[in-house]
């Protein structure tokens, strides 16, 4: 899978060299390429922003560096895919083959585990990290002429820019890319995978600071353990995130 990231803070993404994702990159499972938006500027100050038309506080990211950088990435990826396959593709296949360009934004649809599962299946995603008051609206419209464009929010709060959001999204879908997590079973029994919060976990010692591990987990009785865990999931979800419960369980 190929991931391109456009940012004015390329050094921010050194974090992707470590841990599970660093290993996935080394193993060639995820090919991450980071692009400095300022490389597409032509003035001495490498300017990427300007004042908003219509007035108001803050600065807006200029369209030209974005257009040039995204074009270069999409042209390069089209070259990688090669032309022969496209010659036989029908319209539907062509539409599906268009790369996905994601702009993190508090004005976007909320990123969930379902989004992560969908992104993990994409062959190529481009992330555009905005800063300041956002990116000139025409960049989204122009990019949508050759790619699928999504504005995606991490949640109902405002970050200074898209970099943290992109890191979180890559972490969430990267671990779902086949081969990245050694034991895929460990992905199944997690919060949100079945729509519920996960059950509490325990390990040795069985007694710690006077606190015991629940008896059922020491019983070796698999059906009882599964039932206990499911009950814990329901109880926790009902208490902490009742809006996640399907009506018949609420
Ligand atoms: N950029 C600024 N705030 C954001 C948010 N909540 N989610 C995604 N990107 C953002």
TrEMBL record:
Described purpose of this protein according to its UniProt entry: Specifically methylates guanosine-37 in various tRNAs.
Subcellular location: Cytoplasm
Annotated binding of S-adenosyl-L-methionine, by residue: 130, 154-159
InterPro entries according to UniProt: Alpha/beta_knot_MTases, tRNA_m1G_MeTrfase_C_sf, tRNA_m1G_MeTrfase_TrmD, tRNA_m1G_MTases_N, tRNA_MeTrfase_TRMD/TRM10
Catalytic activity: guanosine(37) in tRNA + S-adenosyl-L-methionine = N(1)-methylguanosine(37) in tRNA + S-adenosyl-L-homocysteine + H(+)
tRNA methyltransferase TRMD/TRM10-type domain residues: 1-245
Keyword line: Cytoplasm, Methyltransferase, S-adenosyl-L-methionine, Transferase, tRNA processing
EC number: 2.1.1.228
CDD domains hit by this protein: TrmD-like
MF (Gene Ontology): tRNA (guanine(37)-N1)-methyltransferase activity
SUPFAM superfamilies associated with the record: alpha/beta knot
GO terms classed as biological process: tRNA N1-guanine methylation
GO cellular component: cytosol
Family membership: Belongs to the RNA methyltransferase TrmD family.
Assembly and interaction partners: Homodimer.
Keyword Metal-binding applies: no
Pfam families linked to this entry: tRNA_m1G_MT (PF01746)
Name of this chain's protein: tRNA (guanine-N(1)-)-methyltransferase
Keyword Secreted: no
